[in-house]
Amino acid sequence: MNLFASEEHKTPLQLPIKDGTVLYIPSFFSSEKASEYFTRLTTETPWQQDSITLFGKTHPQPRLTALYGNNSKPYSYSGITMLPKQFTPTLKEIKCDVEKFSEVNFTTVLLNLYRNGSDSNGWHSDNEKELGTNPVIASVSFGAPRMFHLKHKTDKALKHKIILEHGSLLLMKGATQENWLHQIPKTTKRVAPRINLTFRIVY
Ligand SMILES: O=C(O)CCC(=O)C(=O)O
Ligand SMILES: [Fe+2]
């Protein structure tokens, strides 16, 4: 066996959820590689803070974002329309590894920077029309670990929590977006910055 070519450490853990498929791969990237990507993305990304409109009220989003893609199709959510920038060499490298593993070719990546525990991402599902039905979303995390919550849309008793660690990959597939909401809650703990990348196909 060639230890260096081994993908053994990338064995996914499947969350025990019904009506959807969520896989978690803790050390998808080594800690060293993940730290390198964290630094590169921190400095290379033109982070912006958009305002979102929810229930007719406009608020600055509680995190910074950036959108990259290999087409120029706009992506809209919560009243924001973002136009993608061209993929950078860093993002192409990460995308290539994620695509090999997930066997999906993504067009687009949304980057989120959570500067501290006050930054968050409220309950939502990634169910925008331009993602099509049963989208595969590949979510990569670098930097401080943060909690990820899932709750079922109709069966209120069904909830899951998982910590998204440095260098991890979370894959959401099947009917997950149709049946579940997810969030990154605020925390009162002192936490360092975290960067998350969600790869998507935008039609
Ligand atoms: O930061 C995360 O892990 C989640 C990001 C997310 O849900 C999104 O951008 O749609
Ligand atoms: Fe999401």
From TrEMBL:
InterPro entries, from UniProt? AlkB-like, AlkB-like_sf, ALKBH3, Oxoglu/Fe-dep_dioxygenase_dom
PROSITE patterns named among the record's database cross-references? FE2OG_OXY
Q: Which GO terms describe its biological process?
A: DNA alkylation repair
In the UniProt record, the signal sequence range is none
Keyword Transferase included in the entry's annotation: no
Q: Keywords, A to Z?
A: Dioxygenase, DNA damage, DNA repair, Iron, Magnesium, Metal-binding, Oxidoreductase
> What are the required cofactors?
Fe(2+)
What is this protein's name? Alkylated DNA repair dioxygenase AlkB
Q: Whose protein is this, by species?
A: Ulvibacter litoralis
